[in-house]
Amino acid sequence: MNPVLRCWPVLCLLTALLGCTREIEEVPLSNRLMTMADKFFDVAAVSVEKAVVVGYGGKILVTTDGGKTWQQQDSGTDLALYDVEFPDAQTGWISGQDGLLLKSEDGGETWQQQDSGAAVSLLSLQFLDPDHGWAVGAQATYVRTTDG
Length: 148
Fold this sequence. Notes:
The protein is mainly β. It has one helix at residues 3-18; strands spanning 40-45, 51-55, 60-63, 71-73, 81-85, 92-96, 101-104, 112-114, 122-127, 133-137, 141-145.
């Protein structure tokens, strides 16, 4: 007999005894921040409790309780947002469609558009600190900042 099949009853019993549970929360459709139609492209963990998610249609979602609840932030755009980075707890950067760059200096509460000089999608960015960063994108586009 297959060893996995022999162990199956023991695994089931251990699972039941250890009390593995799932919590499912029913949220009315009208109250949902996330739907099956959403497309998210990146997430940045700012701390143990705080994370920022970016995606299609300019959507920015923020959690401050480890993912239990999420709030939508105003991005000021409906363009796709591809990457998000927080080089420190206060300074955040988002890259997006059509050369879009957004910057936050208040931990992601508000976002201001920055001039990237690019006209194509900026797909990825990386920062060493709040002032020194790079973004790359379509058509071999490369932009950088040395002063935030």
